[in-house]
Amino acid sequence: MSADPTTVADKLAVELDARLAGADAALERGYPGERPGRQPVHTVYVPADRYDAGLVAAYGSAALRALDEHAEGFARLVRDDDIVVRVRAKLAAEPVEDLRIDFEDGYVGRTDADEDVDLVRAATALAASRRDGAAAPFGGIRVKSFEGPTRHRSVRTLTGFVAALVEGGGSLEGWVVTLPKVTSVDQVEAMLHTCAVLEDELDLLAGSLRFEIQVETPQSILGADGTALVARMVHAAGERLTGLHYGTYDYSAFCGIAAEQQSMAHPVADHAKLVMQAAAAGTGVRLSDGSTNVLPVGDAHDVEAAWSLHHQLVRRSLERGYYQGWDLHPAQLPTRYAATYAFFREGLPRALTRLADYARHVTGGIADEPATARALSSYVLRGLDCGAVDEAEVVGATSLTTAALEILARHRPRSTPS
């Protein structure tokens, strides 16, 4: 007589649990899921010598002036009065979501003595703006790379800035360091060591210093051994690593792309960003696209042409799963928010219907699976976070609260540090 199938299955399951225990632990450790909390829709880069405590408000005012001056052109581009109203409200209330004070490529022609002065002045100003509630909700600095020629200057700036920020009463919550031009896992491990030493020497809470990797060299995508080096960087960095930011122009230049063809939409950019996306998936490390250096300045024709390009590129990034990007000028803020809001609002009715059907276990025109429900929930949560979507319209259409959406999206609890 053959053995009882249930007994065999139970025995085999126990054996497999033991056999796969190591793989299960590695999977949970290496792919813990989405990082909790809000991801900013952009990062604004400002040269350190131009930063002051009133910069966020000044950027909002400048963006609104550009919008007023070219209101007809903006309306023609956006073609949605509700989005225009939302953009104006955003620029008045929270024009910059994430601000990076730049001591690298945007900070040129300065001596060591200049940089020493600017880092203290900028850190003190940032601390004041954070205390006064005038800072962007997220922020950080970009230091120079850990390559040999700039390594000492990079560490000196990072150490001095963090010390001055903390001394001035500035919080490190939501604050990161951007490490540019990374070419090896060794540099990532060096950054981990640097963060640990600074926390110890400056009496900071362990784990409070976080960083992001700027992917702007081919070596960070494809290592000499043929592996996707960026994936190894992600797992070497662990919880300290918050993001991978694509560097449009350095990466393109390293790949030999002529200046006129360098773009966020070039095939070399798409290849790099697809590798980054696969490397970061499930790890909690967030992605950011790069920037366009075509700025909305000059006469009406130039401004509207630059707005059209920026709007198109932001939308393209969003459709490809890159929910954050760089902005370099105040007049890029209107199109950043217009494209972002349109992306979330245009898909909202369909997303809410599908979520409501899924929550009620009703099969509508599309039979959604749990993975799709996760994507739909994340989509709506992102819309809520940036101001494109109102909570009342979500609850009214689905009866799902933000907490319920987070459960469907399988985000880690929001009590986890972000």
Descriptive labels:
418 residues; alpha/beta; TIM Barrel; 2 domains; 8 strands; globular
Commentary on this structure:
- The protein is an alpha/beta fold.
- It folds into 2 domains: 42-344, TIM Barrel (Alpha-Beta Barrel); 347-409, no CATH class.
- The chain contains 17 helices and 8 strands.
- The protein has helices spanning 5-19, 21-30, 55-69, 71-78, 81-93, 112-132, 148-167, 185-201, 218-221, 229-237, 248-254, 267-280, 300-319, 333-359, 370-386, 391-398, 402-409, and strands at 42-47, 98-102, 138-142, 175-179, 210-215, 241-246, 286-288, 325-327.
- An 8-stranded parallel beta sheet has the order 7-6-5-4-3-2-1-8.
- Helix 5 crosses helix 14.
- The longest helix is centred in the C-terminal third of the chain and has 27 residues, at 333-359.
- Mean pLDDT is 94; it is low at 414-418.
Spell out the blueprint of helices and strands.
Elements lengths: L4 H15 L1 H10 L11 E6 L7 H15 L1 H8 L2 H13 L4 E5 L9 H21 L5 E5 L5 H20 L7 E5 L5 H17 L8 E6 L2 H4 L7 H9 L3 E6 L1 H7 L12 H14 L5 E3 L11 H20 L5 E3 L5 H27 L10 H17 L4 H8 L3 H8 L9
Parallel strand pairs: 1-2, 1-8, 2-3, 3-4, 4-5, 5-6, 6-7
Helix pairs in contact: 3-5, 5-14, 6-7, 8-10, 10-12, 13-14, 14-15, 15-17
Largest sheet: 8 strands, parallel
How many beta-strand elements?
8
Count of runs of 4 or more consecutive helical residues = 17
Per CATH, the superfamily of the largest domain is Phosphoenolpyruvate-binding domains
Distance between termini? 58 Å
- Rg calc: 23 Å
- Overall mean pLDDT score? 94
CATH topology call of the largest domain: TIM Barrel
Q: Structural class given helices, strands, pairing?
A: alpha/beta
Helix-strand pattern, N to C?
HHEHHHEHEHEHEHHEHHEHEHHHH
Broad CATH class of the largest domain: Alpha Beta
Give the strand order of the largest sheet, numbering strands 1, 2, ... along the chain. Answer: 7-6-5-4-3-2-1-8
**Percentage of helical residues?**
55-70%
- Provide the β-strand percentage band: 5-15%
- Uncertain ranges: 414-418
The outline comes out as globular
